[in-house]
């Protein structure tokens, strides 16, 4: 975008809004002194225009940066959330835009202090990471079986039964897998912080893995999962997920399957966060506690059961 067109687009931000004489130029300079991506520039223009319009209408005076108070920014935040019902992320994005703009104004001597600095962003309600529903897991494994995709079956079973990360999966070596008739385990050596952990392999995962190893191509690689060109990569696993996302009609990605395993583990072993943390490789139990939170869907279902 050329300099002139950027200036024109900055001027048009306040079109139809009463503003002080310097405000369009100040906002234009703010944008031009930052190497923002086009989407970021668009978001700044939208949020600053939204605030300027609200300021002028609420205070019945032109928007002048030197006239903005902490009360204005606080009331604007409440207006977006309570009057317009905008999402927490949308409100917080507007506050970040105001904070960045006024910080620049302070740094360049246009205002003595930032009225946005003291206004805190809205807190997001912590929700449990979303996983697949049981019928979706069934659909995925059924489609894999129909296509007799032995390697995909082993990959998805490992993800669903061990909760491993994609990095754990692609770095898993043949020597890291131990299996017997009644038990088995996989040693993941490339976890976060290079932490090593041994994870049990439940019976369905062992069956799927044995079936794959019996048909594994004779590739000269120590890695468990290989293709015609060598060891399977992170991108290869994600491509496989994309393929079955298209087949099943819902989004699938490795970390979603990790979340799915965590939810199912706690459903079957209520409250056993210590065991789940050990399986997932979490050093901090607070990281694992997020799975105790309810998902947005669960909260909605709980509220729907209210009756007066």
Record field, number of beta strands: 5
Structural class: mainly alpha
The biggest beta sheet reads: 3 strands, antiparallel
User: How much beta, percentage-wise?
Assistant: 5-15%
Q: Note poorly predicted spans.
A: 1-10
Residue-averaged pLDDT:
88
Query: Largest sheet, order of strands side by side?
Result: 1-2-3
What is the terminal-to-terminal distance? 58 Å
Characterization of this structure:
The protein is built from 14 helices and 5 strands. Helix 1 (3-11) crosses helix 2 (23-32), helix 4 packs antiparallel against helix 5 and helix 7 packs antiparallel against helix 9 (203-215). With 308 residues, it is mainly alpha-helical. The protein is elongated, with a radius of gyration of 27 Å. A hairpin with a 2-residue loop joins strand 4 (226-227) and strand 5 (230-231). The strands form 2 sheets. A 3-stranded antiparallel beta sheet has the order 1-2-3. It starts with a helix and ends with a helix. It has helices at 3-11, 23-32, 38-59, 70-83, 88-107, 134-146, 150-162, 166-171, 203-215, 234-248, 254-268, 273-280, 285-289, 296-304, and strands spanning 177-179, 184-188, 197-200, 226-227, 230-231.
Describe the structure concisely:
Helix content is 56%, strand content 5%.
Please give a handful of descriptors for the protein shown.
single chain, 308 residues, mainly alpha, three-stranded antiparallel beta sheet, elongated
Give the helices and strands, then pairings.
Elements lengths: L2 H9 L11 H10 L5 H22 L10 H14 L4 H20 L26 H13 L3 H13 L3 H6 L5 E3 L4 E5 L8 E4 L2 H13 L10 E2 L2 E2 L2 H15 L5 H15 L4 H8 L4 H5 L6 H9 L4
Antiparallel strand pairs: 1-2, 2-3, 4-5
């Amino acid at each position: 975008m050329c300099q002139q067109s950027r200036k024109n687009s900055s001027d048009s931000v306040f079109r139809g809004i009463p503003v002080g004489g310097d405000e369009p130029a100040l906002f234009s300079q703010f944008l031009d002194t930052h190497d923002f991506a086009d989407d970021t520039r668009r978001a700044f223009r939208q949020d600053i225009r939204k605030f300027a319009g609200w300021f002028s209408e609420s205070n019945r005076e032109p928007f002048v940066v030197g006239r903005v108070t902490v009360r204005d920014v606080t009331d604007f935040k409440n207006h977006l959330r309570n009057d317009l019902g905008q999402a927490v992320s949308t409100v917080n994005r507007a506050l970040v835009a105001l904070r960045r703009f006024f910080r620049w104004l302070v740094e360049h001597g246009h205002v003595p202090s930032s009225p946005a600095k003291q206004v805190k962003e809205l807190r997001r309600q912590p929700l449990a990471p979303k996983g697949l529903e049981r019928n979706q897991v069934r659909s995925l494994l059924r489609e894999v079986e129909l296509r007799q995709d032995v390697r995909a079956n082993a990959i998805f079973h490992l993800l669903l039964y061990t909760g491993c990360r994609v990095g754990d999966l692609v770095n898993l070596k043949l020597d890291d897998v131990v299996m017997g008739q009644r038990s088995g385990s996989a040693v993941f050596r490339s976890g976060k912080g290079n932490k090593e952990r041994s994870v049990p392999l439940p019976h369905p995962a062992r069956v799927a893995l044995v079936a794959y190893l019996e048909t594994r191509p004779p590739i000269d690689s120590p890695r468990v999962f290989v293709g015609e060109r060598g060891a399977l990569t992170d991108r290869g696993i994600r491509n496989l997920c994309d393929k079955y996302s298209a087949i099943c009609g819902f989004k699938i990605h490795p970390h979603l399957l990790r979340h799915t395993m965590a939810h199912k583990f706690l459903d079957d072993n209520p409250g056993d966060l210590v065991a789940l943390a050990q399986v997932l490789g979490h050093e901090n139990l607070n990281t694992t506690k997020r799975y105790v939170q309810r998902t947005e869907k669960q909260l909605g279902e709980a509220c729907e059961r209210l009756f007066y």
